[in-house]
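Hello Y.,

Per our agreement to keep a running log of every chain we model this quarter, I'm adding this entry. I've kept the format consistent with earlier entries: sequence first, then predicted structure.
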Amino acid sequence: MKNLIDLEKKVNSDLATKINNSNIKHQQLYLNIQSKDLIDVVIFLKTNNETNFKQLIEITAADYPEKEKRFKMIYLLLSHEFNQRILIDYEINENEIVKSLTSIFPSANWMEREVFDMYGINFTGHPDLRRILTDYNFEGYPLRKDFPLTGHNEVRYSEDKKKVIYEKVKLEQNYRNFDYESPWEGTKYIKVQTKK
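Predicted structure for the entry above:
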């Protein structure tokens, strides 16, 4: 497709029952679908000669803990031939299992492992779904909104034991000096020095 308006018409006419909503923003086509239609939509976009979205750029998720369907899955595809991008999204429940795209795009392997590691979203049909960015003993999912900012455990090397150890996070407040002044006004100790 030469332009996004024609692409949107083509996608909506050929996939009429599978597209909930479509719009053009930021020179990209955005499609909202149901999770069950993901494979059909992606295969159509990749194999149709008028679309040619042959590269998977990204798979990610967004966490909305206040919503009934907590996660939004987001897929970004690129057509080199037409220099166009398309963004596909759908919402899922916290424990819902998502279909893997590894059979269509082998590069999805790494991206789906990242989503699993950071959000705890499982993929069915994935050949090797395990943590990729965090340690194997890591607790929780760091990009979920309910994950504590300090984490659950601290990992450090112990000179006494001569190995890496895990400890519960301890935050000592006694020696912390909080400065609530505006950085534009400067801190008190700098103001005092400049007056002398």
